[in-house]
Each structure stands twice: as structure tokens, then as C-alpha cells.
């Protein structure tokens, strides 16, 4: 085989390896898709820190405390090179995110945990007790479900926080989570049917309108009811018209001459 052909075949395998083992690198800088300009967000620690902000910073820390060891297990226990690479990438990226999170916590005086919570420890226990494809399924599904749960929470913090450091952390965390969901889904074994579904639009609209409807019902309930002894508006109008007609008839009978004179005048 000629050297040129060997180099060509080698290049093909290199590209395939890049796509299969690191799709996030192959798709980096996707044309037409903007990357958020994170450098435009300040990071001074200025702004009120809400209870939700603190909870978010703690949850970012907790995510790293279990996903880093989970990724290490994926590299050791899985027999699938793709799962091994996913675990390696997610674990390494959580090391970076954890460093960012701890810096924000230190700046804002937020105390962080050093061990995973009970649920996370349970998931890690499941992974330790599983082997082969069973491990792969547990690893992928547990992480995909966890990322799907935190994803909307991060968006809420990003949109609502008054603190610029929390805002920047939320923006970065959002990018990490989207990357991790994409990596996990690239395994092709995510059980999407087991994931929670979004509420239907009608239900969301009804839920949003419920307070207004309740207020309207309350207003109707506390409005004074018409008195049973009173007269409704249509009845009053009829009575007034009848009274006026009777008055006209009486006037004509009492002063007939005046009526005749008016008729002669016209």
C-alpha cells in the first residue's frame, strides 16, 4: 500500500475517532450559533443574594461531589469506550465548574457541603453494585435525569438573580449542563420515556389564570346581593313610564279646554 494511501486512511480514522469520542470538540464553533459572551458579565459580588441564589450555589457544589466520582467509575467499570469517554469528559468538566462555584461561594460567604446528599449517595451505591451494560444504563440515566432537573432551575436563577457573581455562575453552569446532556444523549441509551414530561400548555395557562379567577369569584361572593324587597332596574323603568302615562291622561281630563286650544293653535 502506498504511503499516500496509508496517510489518507489514517486521516479518515482520526476524524472518525474525533466524532465518536469527542463530538463536542468536532462541533465546537458551529457556524451561525452564537456562544454567550460571558466576559460581558461582571463578577464583583455586587447585588443582593437571595435564598434561592444560595441554594443554587450549594447545588452546583453537590453536583460535582457525586458526578466526579460517577465519571471515574464510568472509566473503570464500563466496557464501552463511548461511556468511558463520556464519564471522563463530564468528570473533568465538573472539576472546572466546582472551582468556579467554590470561588463564588467564598466571595459571597456561602458555606458549601463536602459530601453528596442522601439521594446522590444512593445513586453512587447503585453504580458501585452494577457491572457491564447494567452499569452503563444506570450511569447514563441517573446523570441525564439529574441534569434535566437542574436545567430549568439554573435558567430561573440566571433570569432573576440580583447578584452579578451568581448570574455569571448560572450562565456558565447552564453551558456545562447543556454540554453534559448532549454527551449523555450521545450514548444512544438514554431512556427518554422515563424522563418527566413538560406540563401541557393548557394546564400551564389554567394554572396561571387560577389566581385571577379565584379573585373574581371572591369579589362576586362578597358583593352585596340585591335586596329581596327592592325593585330591579327594568321594573323601575316600567313603573316610571306607567306613572308618566297616567299623569298625562289625568291632565287631559282635568283641562280639556287647554287641550282643544292647543289643537286649534297647531
Automatic annotation (TrEMBL):
Residues 1-28 form the signal peptide. The chain crosses the membrane at residues 235-255. It holds the Pfam family DUF4142. Keywords: Membrane, Signal, Transmembrane, Transmembrane helix. InterPro entries: DUF4142, Ferritin-like. Gene3D superfamilies: 1.20.1260.10. The keyword RNA-binding does not apply. Residues 52-182 form the DUF4142 domain. This is Putative outer membrane protein. The lineage of its organism: Bacteria, Bacillati, Actinomycetota, Actinomycetes, Micromonosporales.
Amino acid at each position: 500500500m502506498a504511503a499516500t494511501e496509508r496517510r489518507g486512511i489514517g486521516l479518515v480514522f482520526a476524524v472518525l475517532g474525533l466524532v465518536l469520542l469527542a463530538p463536542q470538540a468536532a462541533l465546537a464553533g458551529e457556524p451561525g450559533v452564537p456562544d454567550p459572551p460571558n466576559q460581558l458579565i461582571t463578577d464583583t459580588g455586587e447585588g443582593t443574594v437571595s435564598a434561592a441564589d444560595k441554594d443554587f450555589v450549594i447545588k452546583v457544589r453537590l453536583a460535582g461531589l457525586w458526578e466526579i466520582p460517577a465519571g471515574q467509575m464510568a472509566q473503570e467499570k464500563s466496557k464501552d469506550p463511548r461511556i468511558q469517554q463520556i464519564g471522563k469528559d463530564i468528570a473533568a468538566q465538573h472539576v472546572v465548574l466546582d472551582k468556579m462555584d467554590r470561588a463564588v461561594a467564598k466571595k459571597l460567604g456561602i458555606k458549601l457541603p463536602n459530601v453528596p446528599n442522601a439521594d446522590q449517595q444512593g445513586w453512587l451505591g447503585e453504580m458501585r453494585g452494577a457491572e457491564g451494560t447494567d452499569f452503563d444504563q444506570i450511569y447514563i440515566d441517573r446523570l441525564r435525569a439529574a441534569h434535566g432537573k437542574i436545567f430549568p432551575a439554573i435558567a430561573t436563577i440566571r433570569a432573576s438573580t440580583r447578584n452579578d457573581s451568581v448570574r455569571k455562575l448560572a450562565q456558565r453552569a447552564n453551558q456545562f449542563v447543556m454540554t453534559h446532556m448532549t454527551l449523555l444523549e450521545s450514548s444512544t441509551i438514554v431512556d427518554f420515556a422515563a424522563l418527566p414530561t413538560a406540563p401541557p400548555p393548557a394546564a400551564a395557562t389554567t394554572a396561571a389564570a387560577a389566581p385571577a379567577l379565584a379573585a373574581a369569584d371572591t369579589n362576586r361572593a362578597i358583593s352585596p346581593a340585591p335586596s329581596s324587597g327592592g325593585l330591579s332596574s327594568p321594573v323601575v323603568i316600567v313603573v316610571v313610564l306607567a306613572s308618566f302615562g297616567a299623569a298625562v291622561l289625568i291632565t287631559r281630563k282635568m283641562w280639556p279646554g287647554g287641550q282643544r286650544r292647543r289643537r286649534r293653535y297647531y
